[in-house]
Design a protein that fits this description.
The complex is a heterodimer. Chain A is an all-beta fold. Helix content of chain A is about 0%, strand content about 50%. The chains are: A mainly beta, B mainly beta.
């Protein structure tokens, strides 16, 4: 399984960025995809999740990003997305894409990308 | 939101010793707790899910136990590569899923 994020970079406060996550070597039919971030020197923080097509591609978000971030998936391209709008300095972090292969309560994120850094600064 | 509290914040041990890391939840998460290992500059790696199930490829020296609000990750005999950060995550009541603040396991 290979998970590769891209799209990170430097953006000004109030700006937007779209991250991509390409997944290969894995069947995505039952997989939920999570985005998790890690601010410099800090711990892990869940950002959002998109469920499977069978689950209606339902999405959930952490409170700090709700209304500003959108997660989506395109299984035909084996690619997941995190659209980030109205970015602020507190969004500065390494963003990880993580695969939950079971798509059920419990379990764990088996497969993580290397992360893509996002820096919000004027 | 369920809060996870990990202890200790830092654990200093020598290779060959036994490590015991704790994670306490502010309310019951049943057995829906996972443990991750993260080394500096690397992404997290899943060690344990559903409190006690080892993920694929994880050595047998790693074990997890607990249910409800109290959980433990045990490393039976530390190898040099085990010195890292460890995070617990509850997967019972989300959104949101939450992580503990982490335990740093360092070489004594």
């Amino acid at each position: 399984v290979q998970v590769v994020e891209s799209g990170g970079g430097l953006v000004k406060p109030g700006g937007s960025l779209r991250l991509s996550c390409a997944i290969s070597g894995f069947s995505l039919n039952r997989a939920w995809i999570n985005w998790v971030r890690q601010a410099p020197g800090k711990g892990l923080e869940w950002v959002g999740r998109v469920k499977t097509k069978a689950d209606g591609e339902a999405t959930d978000y952490a409170a700090p990003v709700k209304g500003r971030f959108t997660v989506s998936r395109d299984d035909s391209k084996s690619t997941m997305y995190l659209q980030m709008n109205s970015l602020n300095i507190e969004d500065t972090a390494v963003y990880y894409c993580a695969v939950d292969p079971s798509g059920v309560v419990g379990g764990g994120d088996c497969c993580w990308g290397q992360g893509t850094p996002v820096t919000v600064s004027s | 939101e369920i809060v996870l509290t990990q202890s200790p914040a830092t654990l200093s041990l020598s290779p060959g010793e036994r490590a015991t890391l704790s994670c306490r939840a502010s309310q019951s998460v049943s057995v829906y707790l996972a443990w991750y290992q993260q080394k500096p500059g690397q992404s997290p790696r899943l060690l344990i899910y559903d409190a006690s199930r080892r993920a694929a490829g994880i050595p047998a020296r790693f074990s997890g136990s607990g249910s409800g609000t109290d959980f433990t990750l045990t490393i039976s005999s530390l190898e040099p590569e085990d010195f890292a950060f460890y995070y617990c995550q509850q997967r019972s009541n989300w959104p949101p899923t939450t992580f503990g603040q982490g335990t740093r396991l360092e070489i004594k």
